[in-house]
Inverse folding.
């Protein structure tokens, strides 16, 4: 992984933590996720029109990606209804890179060194440790299966999108169509889950959703591009440093508690990042 790709993926991690904070601080998290997704769909359609048509072999990957992204957002929105940003986010993001790396050993041709795998594990253990307060502080445990479901979907779309973007031969085109399909699938799911009323939102809610959508699209566009330039497992793991950014946002902006466990977890995450750069 080059220094340029490394730094750009770190910036994408900051964007990712930021859009989650925007959604978490909103009133109706599910509606916020819907508005985010719909705004992304419009942006994605504009990208799809501007950039070259993806290779035909990429379309099965695009359809699979749309389904996985929709499932990921459904799980995440539900999890945020039961826990704080600094608890849900680490669990949802923390186990995903380890799943991605494990599956990647068997299905991908990328070469990842032992030191790099040590970095992946350090990042994973760090973000899981950051979430230990669910048990230590007696917090709502209903968030756990929802957050883990989100993690499984994250690992799934990381692999699908990394391979699909390579097949499409254009990361921007793949990302645009993926977000458009995701918006279509999520809109159908929202209609069945909450009915037509969920589409009726205030101007403020739409502005928040559009801001979160722009941050999310920028973050993932960068990630998909990076997966065409570096091993997918490394990019997927490095993206999880967004947990550290989420912790800082939670402590300094949302005034969440900065306990020793969170600080230790942050140190593990930084150690993992450094290992991946050796």
């Amino acid at each position: 992984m080059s220094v340029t790709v490394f730094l750009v993926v770190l910036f994408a991690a900051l964007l990712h933590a930021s859009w989650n904070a925007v959604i978490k601080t909103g009133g109706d998290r599910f509606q916020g996720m819907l508005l985010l997704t719909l705004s992304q769909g419009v942006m994605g359609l504009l990208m799809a029109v501007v950039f070259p048509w993806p290779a035909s072999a990429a379309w099965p990957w695009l359809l699979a990606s749309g389904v996985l992204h929709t499932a990921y957002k459904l799980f995440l929105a539900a999890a945020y209804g039961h826990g704080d940003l600094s608890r849900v986010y680490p669990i949802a993001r923390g186990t995903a890179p380890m799943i991605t790396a494990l599956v990647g050993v068997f299905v991908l041709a990328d070469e990842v060194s032992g030191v790099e795998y040590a970095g992946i594990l350090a990042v994973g253990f760090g973000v899981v440790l950051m979430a230990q307060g669910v048990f230590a502080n007696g917090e709502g445990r209903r968030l756990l299966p929802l957050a883990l479901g989100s993690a499984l979907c994250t690992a799934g779309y990381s692999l699908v999108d990394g391979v699909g973007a390579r097949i499409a031969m254009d990361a921007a085109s793949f990302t645009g169509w993926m977000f458009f399909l995701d918006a279509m699938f999520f809109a159908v799911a929202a209609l069945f889950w909450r009915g037509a009323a969920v589409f009726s939102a205030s101007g403020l809610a739409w502005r928040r959703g559009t801001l979160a959508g722009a941050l999310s699209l920028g973050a993932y566009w960068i990630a998909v591009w990076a997966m065409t330039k570096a091993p997918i497992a490394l990019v997927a793991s490095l993206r999880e440093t967004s947990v550290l950014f989420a912790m800082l946002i939670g402590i300094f902006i949302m005034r969440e508690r900065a306990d020793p466990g969170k600080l230790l977890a942050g140190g593990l995450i930084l150690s993992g990042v450094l290992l991946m750069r050796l």
Notes: Residues 26 and 127 are 24 Å apart (CA to CA). The radius of gyration is 18 Å.
